[in-house]
From TrEMBL:
This is Dihydrolipoyl dehydrogenase. Its EC number is 1.8.1.4. The active site is a redox-active disulfide bond. Its cofactor is FAD. Pfam families: Pyr_redox_2, Pyr_redox_dim. One of its GO terms (biological process) is 2-oxoglutarate metabolic process. It catalyses: N(6)-[(R)-dihydrolipoyl]-L-lysyl-[protein] + NAD(+) = N(6)-[(R)-lipoyl]-L-lysyl-[protein] + NADH + H(+). Binds 1 FAD per subunit. Residues 2-321 form the FAD/NAD(P)-binding domain. It comes from Marinomonas rhizomae. GO terms for molecular function: dihydrolipoyl dehydrogenase (NADH) activity; flavin adenine dinucleotide binding. SUPFAM superfamilies: FAD/NAD(P)-binding domain, FAD/NAD-linked reductases, dimerisation (C-terminal) domain.
Amino acid sequence: MYDLVVLGSGPGGYASAFRAADLGLNVAMIERHDALGGVCLNVGCIPSKALLHVAGKILMADEPTHGVQFSKPTIDLEAIRHHRQSTVDTLTGGLTMMAKGRKVTVFHGEGRFDTANSMTVSKDGSEEKVEFKNAIIAVGSRAIKLPFVPYDDPRILDSTSALQLERIPEHLLVLGGGIIGLEMATVYQSLGAKITVAELGEQIMTGADKDLVKVFEQVNKDRMSFLTNTQVTNIEATPEALNVTLKDKDGERQLAVDAVLVAVGRSPNGKTAGIADIGVRLDERGFVLTDDKCQTSVPNIYAIGDVTHGPMLAHKASHQGHTAAEVIAGHKVDFQPLAIPSIAYTFPEVAWVGLTETEAKKQDISVKTAVFPWSASGRAIASGVTQGKTKLIYDEVTERVLGAGIVGSHAGELLGELTLAIELGATLEDIALTIHAHPSLHETVGLAAELGAGTIT
Ligand code: FAD
């Protein structure tokens, strides 16, 4: 009997299995695929960033190069696919070694709960029973499907097939203006596709403040066309094209494109693997309900990652994984983050953490903002990346920093300082008095705080 069985080997699953093994528990992990790492390592965060790295190189050749001319890039799709796959293989191979090193038993097969203390793992017609004292559900999420989309048509892509880069369509419609859709739009645009993004909401990247998103749109206005407040109501596949019906306040119209990427969000996998049958409570959408200890309604069963409420992000999953493993090992810990960063690895990057200005307004929280434009940053000017801004959202009375957003080159890397600031309860003055190196992009964080604190004008 194992002390702990983890169902799923994504960032939540492997983080919890490894932490539990490090704490001395006898651990097994169950994964249906041959490669460990879940969506993130195999068909999510990692391959998309490998492709975005390549996209960045291509786009650089297009930008003003201040005296250095690059010729038009030559694209070798096979070599780009190889870069993506070797990045994935390096990381997933590393996980297998780490599991071995920690003596975590890995079962490859489809896991299904029989009771709250046993599971059956099925593979190729054979079955194995696995018994445990505790289990962690880390089964992740899957792409949402729309009823009118002709999924059998190879010109319809989801994020997984889009990452394969089978071909570059002349005109790609990206259905959904969230992070995943916009990252893939960036990749395909850099490889030569014309991009139209259709978004139902009033802005793309709905989680971020509008003023940050505007900078992204401005930089990309000649590369992509953004249709907001626009619903895709039908897609008709003909031999020549995919005829997409778009509906906005002016009525319906048709757009003929060569491919459609459906990126309208993801839904949790809670209604699978016999999870509900053993008494674990779910909400109506299939999220597993948990408390601050990641414990479900069945006391020895825990749940983490995309299958639980909260942002569907790898770092949220892995932190929950650590909490669940530590709770099972008897530690007194909770999962209560003040700040979970979100990053769109687009060009420019858009990154935000904690409370946004929009949320503050909705929740009637009195906040002020301090914004430092990158057009006044020495490093940004020297590097030709002045289209950016750093924004702090802080409590009107205490001046405690509650949220932050950055748009610009390397915005995601700059967000770390602000995530820590929020977690530590830092005020504007704390940040303003922290010496930031000159000239640097992170200096814009210090300068925004100084603007807010009134020490500079
Ligand atoms: P998953 O990674 O989904 O892993 C679940 C695992 O469980 C899978 O391997 C699955 O095969 C296995 N499984 C499920 N059911 C069973 C069963 N019954 N038996 C056996 N195995 C089972 N997040 C970020 O933070 N940063 C990013 O840059 C980012 N980019 C993304 C890009 C794309 C294109 C996509 C699709 C997602 C991206 N995400 C990103 C989201 C991130 O991938 C997820 O938040 C993360 O993978 C969730 O981890 P998880 O452990 O909850 O589940």
